[in-house]
Amino acid sequence: MNIALIAHDKKKESMINFTIAYKGTLAKYNLMATGTTGKLIQDATGLNVKRFRSGPLGGDQQIGAEIAVNNVDLVIFLRDPLTAQPHEPDILALLRLCDVYKIPVATNVATAEILLRAMERGEFQWREFVQKYED
Fold this sequence. Notes:
Layout (H helix, E strand, L loop, with lengths): L1 E6 L4 H10 L1 H4 L3 E4 L1 H11 L3 E3 L7 H10 L5 E5 L9 H13 L4 E2 L2 H12 L5 H9 L1
Function: Catalyzes the formation of methylglyoxal from dihydroxyacetone phosphate.
GO molecular function: methylglyoxal synthase activity
Family: Belongs to the methylglyoxal synthase family.
């Protein structure tokens, strides 16, 4: 299972707190993140995180490319809905790819918790579900 972690600047503290709280669960999976977010997660938790570029410097697009080649199973993208982002087209492209490839995406901590708790219980096997109904 490959999980992508992304957080806008005003949401980085929430992402750190989230990854600390769910460190035990996240440690079971392959993690990837945009640059600064990934470094903060690694420093705070000791988790191994594959880091891409910062979001505005192409990191969102790099994670989008991973989605397009079926290397991402879940995206946790803590977005700041109250601040304009200079790379908004990249963000929308990444979210669009999640929709196209049926990748669950959480854009806030509440949804991220629901998805991770479902995974912990073994109740969240969307890959098998999607494959079954697409065949």
